[in-house]
Specification:
- The chain is of the alpha/beta class.
- Helices cover 30% and strands 22% of the residues.
- The chain has 12 helices and 14 strands.
- The protein has a 6-stranded parallel β-sheet with strand order 3-2-1-4-5-6, with helices on both faces. Strands 10-7-11-14-13-12 form a 6-stranded mixed β-sheet. It has a two-stranded antiparallel sheet with strand order 8-9.
- The chain is globular, with a radius of gyration of 20 Å.
- 48% of the residues are buried.
Amino acid sequence: MDKIKVGILGCTGAVGQKFITLLEGHPFFEISEIAASERSSGQKYKDRVNWIETTPLPENIADMVIKECSGDLDAKILFSALDSSVAGSVETEMANKGYAVVSNSKNHRMDDNVPLLIPELNGDHFALIDLQQSKKASGGYIVTNPNCATVVLAITLYPLHKEFGIESVIVTTMQAISGAGYPGVASLDIMGNLIPHIGGGEEEKLETEPLKILGALENNRIKFADFKISAAVNRVPVRDGHTVSVSVKLKNKASKEAILKAFDDVQTYDLPFSPKKLIHYYDTPGRPRPLTDVNTENGMAITIGNLRECSVLDWKYTALGHNTIRGAAGAAILNAEYMVKNNLL
């Protein structure tokens, strides 16, 4: 197949850089445009970006000239890594112009007609794009991927919700500093320390986004999942990898063996960014942990360990996911791959 032209909105930021790294050599997509704010437009990428990726800046991108985010771009898909302060209006404008906007930003996640997607869990929610006015008028639309910690939580709750039903969830997160973007958290705040608060409505995202993701599409609307989540979020001195400690009360009793089988049975797809196995479980004490497990299946799988009975609810476990890959750029790319496979462009 001929490669599909894609653009990156917010190309100079941490997530924008991750998009550039992950899309290098992609079998479906080629980067044809990069865009950022007026401060950066008109400049070569190499002259504007503070490259923080661990791999070299691709030569074909280095000399590319940055465009304005709301301009006319030679691309079919736009990956949005824009800051939430500007993402909402820009993404709406570009969808109205006919682009397929695949967003990592929070602004449209909870809109009624915008799907909040983890394809292995709720690919049927893509049907919402047909209800967007931009789709009817210009062919453009918006799809979103969840908050980076929500991805870890929702993927691990999905098989429990599907097989046994869930009554309630308590989750505590230990979130990596890369989740704060660049320059992120001041070193004197995070080194040898833990910050028991993350701004931007992080707790609220964890308490609401999984309910939309795990909800059912009925009569062109999402009926949210009917359980409550209580979240507490923390920033920890880890570069990459969001860890969550979860306690869950089930509607129907389940054995450890049944739960592990449910984790093991979650579907995946034959797509470039799909992990062969979505959830990896470790019986080894002290796993999962960011240092050894964050890059499981190129950062696109979730790892779980320490499943045991809970004396307050029913079961508890620890889970880990790569926040800038599975929780951000990689998630958006997988959404776009799913769109290609299912002729949604």
